[in-house]
Structure formats: C-alpha cells, structure tokens
Amino acid sequence: MEDRLREEFSTYYDKQPTQTYFCPGRVNLIGEHIDYNGGLVMPCAVTFGTYLLVAPNDDNVFRFKSLNFEDTAEVALKDTYEKTGTYWYNYPLGVITHFLKDGKTLKGLDILYYGNIPIASGLSSSASIEVATAFALNDLFDGGYTKLELVLLSKWVENVFIGLNSGIMDQFSVAFGEKNKALMLDCNTLEYEAVDSNLGEYVLAIINTNKPRKLAESKYNERVQECHTALAALKQELNIENLCDIDTDTFNKHKHLITDEMVLKRATHVIEENDRVKLAANALNANDLNEFGRLMYASHDSLRDLYEVSGKELDAVVDYSKTNPNVAGARMTGAGFGGCAIALVKSSAFEKFSADVTEYYTNTIGYAPAVYSSLIGDGVGLLQDTVHA
After folding, report:
1. What angle do the packed helices 312-323 and 289-305 form, to 10 degrees?
2. Is 58 annotated to bind ligand?
3. Segments of the chain assigned to CATH 3.30.70.890
4. Homologous superfamily of domain range 198-374
5. Kind of pairing between the strands at 109-115 and 40-56
6. What is its main location (predicted)?
7. Which end of the chain is more exposed for a tag (fewer CB within 10 A), N or C?
8. Would you give the DSSP letter of residue 216?
9. 218 annotated to bind ligand
10. 237 is in an annotated binding site
11. Residues paired with 111 in a beta bridge
C-alpha cells in the first residue's frame, strides 16, 4: 500500500514524499450518543484509516490532493482561512487555521491523502483526516502540542470550522487507540481506561449499510438540543453539569421534571446507555463475550426505540444477526441515520455470515451492504520517514 501511494505522490507532484503518516478510523463498541452528554463511551481504533504523504515546497502554498475525491486545491499561506462549500479539504484547512491561530509557523506543503475508510459510513473518516493532519503538522513544524491537545484542536475543527456539534470520542479514539484494547473514555474528564479486548474465537464484523448519510445535515444536532433540554429540566432539582452525571436510579427519581415525552425518551436512552458501558467493561474484563453481546443488542434496541437514530437499513443487519447462532451480539455504531453496524461473529463462520447477511440485507433493502472484518489497531503515527528509508 505505502509503495503504491509513494508512486501516486511522485506521479502527481513530480517528487518523492518525505514522510508518510497513518491515522485509523474507529468503531464505537458501545456507548452511543454519550460523548456530548459527558458520559462513558467504548471505542476502539480499527486497522483501516487515512494515509497522509507529504513533502515541503518553496512556493509558500498548501496543495491538497486526495485519491478518494476529484477535487484538488492550492491555497496560498496566509493568516487564516474560512470553510469553502462542502469540499473534503475543509478538514485539513481547518487544522491549518488552528495552528496559525495559535501562532505556529508553517511553510508550504504538497500533501496527498488516501483513505480506505468507507466515506460517510460512521467510521470517523473526518476525524481520521483531522488528526492525521494535526499530527503531521505538529511533527513537521515542531508544533509542541501534546497528543491530547491535538485531539482538542481537531475537535475544534469539527465543531467550529466545519460546524458539526459532535463530541470528542472520534478524535480521541483515533489518536489514543491501542492494539487489542477498547478505550473506556469519560467524555467529561477525558480520563480513560484501556480495557483488554480479547475477542477469542470472534472477530469484529463491520457492515456498511451503504445508505448515503450527510451527518451535518441530519438530525444529529437536533438530538444534541433535545439532550440540552432534558438537562435544563433536571437542573431544577439536581446540581449536575451533564446528563451522565447521574445513574439510572437517580434519573428515575427525577424524570418527572421532563414534561416533553420525546425529550424524556432521549434522556432515558442516554442515562441507561451510560450504565451499559460500565457493564460492558465488566463483561470484557471477565472475558464474557455472551454478556457483552447481550449489551450490544440492548444498546441497539434503545437507539432504535428511544433515541430514534437507527433506520430500516441498520435494523435489517441487527435483525438478521439475532437469528445467527454464530453471532454473539450486534448493534448500530456511530451517529446512525445510515452508516455502519457491527457484530461479534465467530471467526470460523465469518465468510458465511458475510454472504448470508448480504443476501438478507439485499432482499430486505434492495441493494447490497459491504462487509468487512477488522482487528483492533493502534492510533495515529508516523509510518515512514522516506527520506531516511
């Protein structure tokens, strides 16, 4: 892969790249729509993601090329930039803007991106681009940021520059991911525990529904607002900063404060899902994958019925999984409204699972999904310094 990308870089820019970086995508194993409510999530880095190849230029410009999109850009170095339309290169441009805003000294670069994360699938292709770019610039120009500061910087890009009110989970997990570990992350304090995730005879199946999904244009921001409404109601009697500051028992004693039935459903999911993450960590620590799978199904049911962010495509994958004895559990992952589901599938049965879920889904929905298997991988890093290779 890296050799082919270096050839592509050389063909396009007529020179060799000096460094190659990689940042993975992520799946969230459990704990959905929790990150912006100050609770616990359990993501892991996957083994596919974004490659970034770079070489300096003397022209004081940033040149952006991606093998995934036709659009290219050449941008003169200046003090600040603004988002332009919906182009993919807004993500690296936002990162550059933050570096400049912080007074960092940058110079011209020729950059090539390639991602093998399915676009708009809910596997955090945008966070992967942001963190890959931030890590590379920090490395190349001695930015002095810590890894956590790069995460926060990238979240600023998503929230302010791009305009999506997402939490910190995506950027955190692709930066701090560890091989064969799930990250139980407290989105309020940013403290985390790397939970041993020995999948044993199982693999992580990722099923992309192939339903087009524009997250920034979806009902995501509407759900964020509904949670703010629930929090404001609970604050009439509770001294809390986030919905996830309370457990299910405390919530049940005070949920009468939420008078809007729809808002109550949203809050119920958030509180119960946060408790499910704690139970899931206990199950993984005990190597009880059957219990972990049961919690995955419970999570999906809540996201379908209470939070209403699933849909017939994601439900079809989970409905089929419940009929397959080789599947321990399944759920939608990511923000929903399309995107991906995940399933714990016995490795010996993965190929048959892939064929059977594809047939069921195609018959039910009318077009085929894409099915992948992934290991749990490491976070962002420098793959190769090609000058010294």
Report:
1. 150
2. no
3. 198-374
4. GHMP kinase, C-terminal domain (3.30.70.890)
5. antiparallel
6. cytoplasm
7. C
8. G
9. no
10. no
11. 54, 64
Q: Identify the active-site residue in 58, 79, 102, 170.
A: 170
Report the CATH number of the 2-194+377-384 domain: 3.30.230.10
Domain with CATH 3.30.230.10 in the chain: 2-194+377-384
The H or E element that residue 5 is part of is: helix 2-13
> Binding residue per annotation — 123?
yes
pLDDT tens for the chain, 389 residues: list them.
889 999 999 999 999 999 999 999 999 999 999 989 999 999 999 988 999 999 999 999 999 999 999 999 999 999 899 999 999 999 999 999 999 999 999 999 999 999 998 766 667 789 999 999 999 999 999 999 999 999 999 999 999 999 988 878 899 999 999 999 999 999 999 999 999 998 889 999 999 999 876 654 568 889 999 999 999 999 999 999 999 999 999 999 999 999 999 999 999 999 999 999 999 999 999 999 999 999 999 999 999 999 999 999 999 999 999 999 999 999 999 888 888 999 999 999 999 999 999 999 999 999 999 999 988 899 999 996 544 33
Residue 35 among known ligand-binding residues: yes
Both tokens assigned to 193: 């525990």
128 annotated as belonging to a binding site for a ligand: no
170 labelled catalytic:
yes
